[in-house]
## 1
Amino acid sequence: MQDIKITYSEDLNGNLVHIDSAIKGSRYICPTCRKIMSVRISRLQIGEKYFRRPHYAHQKNSNCSPETVLHNLFKTKVAEYIQTKIDNKNNINFSWDCEYCKDTHSGNLIKKINSVKLEYYLGECTPDIALFDKDNNIIAVIEVVVTHKPEEKTLLYYKEHNIILIQIDLASFDDIDNLEVRLLKPNIVTLCVNPKCTKCGCPKLKLELNIISANCYRCHKEMKVASIYNSRYEIGHVYPESFLPSELELARQSGVIIKQSYSKTKHKSYNANVCPHCNAFIGSYFLFEDYIVPSVYGDYDHVTLNAGYTCLCDRDFT
Ligand SMILES: [Zn+2]
Ligand SMILES: [Zn+2]
Ligand SMILES: [Zn+2]
Ligand SMILES: [Zn+2]
């Protein structure tokens, strides 16, 4: 963490004053520790050696750190911002990169939220901001991270109690000026909005079927091959041997020939892409090396079809 410079303090009337509006000789106090701050405005110009951005500074031997001031100020202002939006019946349309399904989701942050509380004690932990529904159930928490990420036991508590964690990582006081931007695209949101699997309860994954227009490795005539990719799968690619019936159907409708074929290396029969001209059978290794990789590099055209939502537990990877 680089040296954080404080750019906000309060005047004696309790108004926050940005350093650019500060008047030398006036008195300003730290919004966190309530002690007098000094105004540091460099006489040097930007770019000159020893130039430092104008900032407020604590007196010597203060034990109040700029990180703490940033953390407190940001969370207070975010809570105020959210409460104002609730009071005015506005939406807060935010979006996030889902860690579970790897898609980007979006939604109204305060759709079900009725009230906001700072530092709400939950026994195991005290989230920076807690968001409650109209029945006073805690729905989500916002953790503002300057130096300390939430502890493992805190994350576990949220998970076990179905509390959505929204994490915003801060780097400097510029984040105060960009509060709305930071809130509308948090660093982490532990919510996947995909439909849930009725068997295992996990969110399903939205998959795309790739149909690659290629040439048969054996007869070199045109053929189509099918595969599925989703970064959520550890193996990344799903080959016809693990396709669901609906995916086999979709591939066949697109002109792909998929047949049960016997593999001498695997000592079993399984579904694979087959050349319509010479009946050559493409096992998963060659499907990847000779068809998927070239299509990624643009050597082969491919189209992607929506294969719908499916769950990991639906699929047989053996
Ligand atoms: Zn302070
Ligand atoms: Zn998701
Ligand atoms: Zn499932
Ligand atoms: Zn062929």
Note: The chain has six helices and 19 strands.
## 2
Amino acid sequence: MTDKYLVEPDIGFLNEVVGLGGDTLKKCYQCATCSVACPISPDNKPFPRKEMIAASWGLKDRLVGNADVWLCHNCGDCTTLCPRDAKPGDVMAAIRSYAITEYARPKGMAQAVNKINKLPMLLGFPVALIIILGAITGLVNWSPTGEIVHAKFISTWLEDILIIPASIFAVVVFALGLKRFIADIHQNALDAGKTDKEKIDAAEFLKALVRVIPRILKHSKFSQCGENEERATSHMMVFFGFIGLFIVTGIFFVVLYIFGIHGPYSQLNPVKWLANIAGVSLVIGSALMIKNRLAKTDQVSTYKDWQLIGLALALGLTGMLTEMTRLGGAAGLSYTLYFIHLVFVFALFVYLPFSKLAHLVYRTVAMAYAEYSGRKF
Ligand code: SF4
Ligand code: SF4
């Protein structure tokens, strides 16, 4: 006898996906062209057709904790070939966007980060924090004189009082979200018959994670994109720009607190070169992303997309201009830009697990899970 499956649509989820750029999903008539067209979908239970069906039925549980949703790299090949203009690539992106909000806690913060009208409040928070903490601790000098040294204006101690707890907060939010995410993708894989292992073997999972890292660094899946091939370049530039800046921050942290060497550091210092290259990469990569998105009028670009690109550009530009104005001797401008840069750095860390940038973590874990479970894609 055929098993019966009671469909329980989650209308709230359906409406959210529609609002996040998946408003075309109802046009799908399930022809499967998209699954055939997708250059990275596996032969066994391919995506995105099954996700289109599940989305149109409002089957939240089958989608939010579905690793396949994250294996999609939003190349747009399926969207171009869809005969119904149902834009499956955009629907997949909308589901990912929903999933980030679903796994991040506190939920109110996740919702606020993704609403444009909350942006002034979200950026105003670090501004107020710097001013208040500066007033309490005396670690902000509003009228520094002499040689331009940013630490004379905002002490490195205050920077660390802000950034270290912000980083810990991001790690904790990610850890809690990933715990639920991994449990859900494993349960979904079991239900769909994609794996027969009842429990995840942590050691094997970590080995799988190590195996996928080189693929992620090489952007090998992005290179398989046909329609949006140029996206790989801009994505790689932003990706390595962020990685470079994280490395630089880590090295200067050690140099300052272990070796007690204060900045500003010489322009001949190789770490400074790395910082400059990473900053330029971030600015050019995000500018290319803007150009690509504006050119792709058939692809949905939501506030979350623009928010991430805007943050990358703002971080790169304020960082580079802070340095250039320091070297040019424009003290007032340099200190102002430094203040703005610090606000963006704080925003990056605190809002990271709730923003589109969280895809970096969720996609990595989903790819590791696919590798672990032997799902070839
Ligand atoms: S999204 Fe388009 S291509 Fe994919 S199954 Fe639906 S109608 Fe066909
Ligand atoms: S957007 Fe690209 S990667 Fe994603 S499902 Fe469509 S064809 Fe596949």
Note: The pocket of iron/sulfur cluster (ligand 1) is lined by residues 28-34, 49, 52, 82, 84, 86, 88 (CB under 6 Å).
